[in-house]
Amino acid sequence: MAKKAEATVEVRLRALYDLQLIDSRVDEIRNLRGELPLEVQDLEDEVEGLNTRLEKLGTNLDLIDDQIKGKKNLIEEAKALIKKYSEQQKNVRNNREYNSLTKEVEFQELEIQLADKHIKEFKVQIDQKKEVISTTKDKLKDRTTHLKHKRSELNEILAETQKEEDALLKKSEDFQKKLDDRLVNAYLRIRNNVKNGLAVVPIERGAAGGSFFTIPPQIQVEIASRKKVITDEHSGRILVDAELAQEEQDKMGKMFSKL
């Protein structure tokens, strides 16, 4: 079976620049969304954290209420014992029994005083936690409202751009398949190493797009001949001539308008 003819360098350069235009359009769409997805995620995490805090505060209040009930029960038991010991004092046979019962009464009175003290402390804790709960609820309401607005803003942008982005990502995969793996890997490596994601750039005013370093005339002639893939010695980007770039921009612009 005859071997499939290898694409010419010019065909590969055009496909490579088309791939760059597609990926750059995806970058534009994602920049349009900006930090919104991260803002929404941060707000969601904050709202979740505030809800968790409110749940814990509510649980703490319940525990304190239980402790207050326990102290009140202890007071009632102590009062019952005081009454019991006071009745027993009326029927004692000697001072030793009377003094022993008196000590029991005094101990129960101290238990009541200590329980009252703890109840007051618990009530102070309740007031403090209720104040925190109120502040937390206000913050939660504010953050929830803000999250609702940000979600709406993000959803609006997603509705406008998601379909186009999905279509572009599919096109990007298709155009990568037109190129050999070595060239795609080189393209992706360069793209990941530059801030603006531009791995393939045209010659503009004698220099690589976005660069101030002039490209020697002989190299510019070689680039225009489209006989081999040439990279900029300063930035490492793959270079194409301005005419080819304009032709591909016009072609891809028509494709983008249909997405």
Task: Describe the 3D structure.
The chain is mainly alpha-helical and 259 residues long. The protein has two domains: 9-32 and 180-258, no CATH class; 36-173, Helix Hairpins. The protein has six helices and four strands. It has a four-stranded mixed beta sheet. A hairpin with a 6-residue loop joins β3 (230-231) and β4 (238-240). α1 packs antiparallel against α3 (95-177) and α1 packs across α6 (242-258). The longest helix has 83 residues, at 95-177. The protein is rod-shaped, with a radius of gyration of 39 Å. The two termini are 38 Å apart. Residues 1-5 have low confidence and may be disordered.
Short overview:
The protein is mainly alpha-helical. It is 78% helix and 5% strand. It has 2 domains: 103 residues, no CATH class; 138 residues, Helix Hairpins (Orthogonal Bundle), CATH 1.10.287.1490.
Strand content: under 5%
**pLDDT under 50 segments (min length 5)?**
1-5
The first-level CATH class of the largest domain is given as Mainly Alpha
* Rg of Cα set: 39 Å
Question: Would you spell out the secondary-structure blueprint of this structure?
Answer:
Elements: H1 9-33, H2 36-89, H3 95-177, H4 181-193, E1 200-204, E2 207-208, H5 217-225, E3 230-231, E4 238-240, H6 242-258
Parallel strand pairs: 1-4
Antiparallel strand pairs: 1-2, 3-4
Helix pairs in contact: 1-3, 1-6, 2-3
List keywords for this structure.
single chain; 259 residues; mainly alpha; Helix Hairpins; 2 domains; four-stranded mixed sheet; 6 helices; disordered N terminus
